Amino acid sequence: MTTQQLVDQIHKKQSFLCIGLDTDLEKIPAHLLQEEDPIFAFNKAIIDATHHLCVAYKPNTAFYEAYGLKGWKSLEKTIEYLNSSYPELFTIADAKRGDIGNTSTRYAKAFFEELNFDSLTIAPYMGRDSVEPFLEFKDKHTILLALTSNAGAFDFQTQSVDGQELYKKVLETSKTYKNSENLMYVVGATKAEFLKEIRQIIPERFLLVPGVGAQGGSLEEVCRYGMNEKVGLLINSSRGIIYASDTRDFAESAAQEAQKLKNQMELLLKNR
Amino acid sequence: MTTQQLVDQIHKKQSFLCIGLDTDLEKIPAHLLQEEDPIFAFNKAIIDATHHLCVAYKPNTAFYEAYGLKGWKSLEKTIEYLNSSYPELFTIADAKRGDIGNTSTRYAKAFFEELNFDSLTIAPYMGRDSVEPFLEFKDKHTILLALTSNAGAFDFQTQSVDGQELYKKVLETSKTYKNSENLMYVVGATKAEFLKEIRQIIPERFLLVPGVGAQGGSLEEVCRYGMNEKVGLLINSSRGIIYASDTRDFAESAAQEAQKLKNQMELLLKNR
Question: Where is the Orotidine 5'-phosphate decarboxylase domain (chains A, B) (predicted)?
Answer without folding.
Answer: 16-254
